């Protein structure tokens, strides 16, 4: 489930708003997307994949997830972490094997 939109990293491209199949986001008054309908999130990771600034965090397991802070996620390298694992973004290569990615997707229910 989508957990965080980092205002400090967001470049206001609104790609997440455009690609979300369940319209979880609204464009904020300041241009930064707002998580408006979090319970509609299907944990498909599309928003995180398309975010060019790694400003989003989608928790792979929504059920029973612990609250997280942006600082903890940034320190752990998890903001945009799924995007990195699949190798999306200029100069990136997948750090996970195809089998790992299939397992991640299944675990997330995708």
Automatic annotation (TrEMBL):
Alphabetically ordered keywords of this record: 4Fe-4S, Iron, Iron-sulfur, Metal-binding
Superkingdom of origin organism: Bacteria
Domain 4Fe-4S ferredoxin-type: 1-30, 31-61
One Pfam family recorded for the sequence: Fer4_9
GO MF: 4 iron, 4 sulfur cluster binding; metal ion binding
Gene3D superfamilies: 3.30.70.20
Name the UniProt record assigns to this protein: Ferredoxin family protein
Organism of this sequence: Paenibacillus spiritus
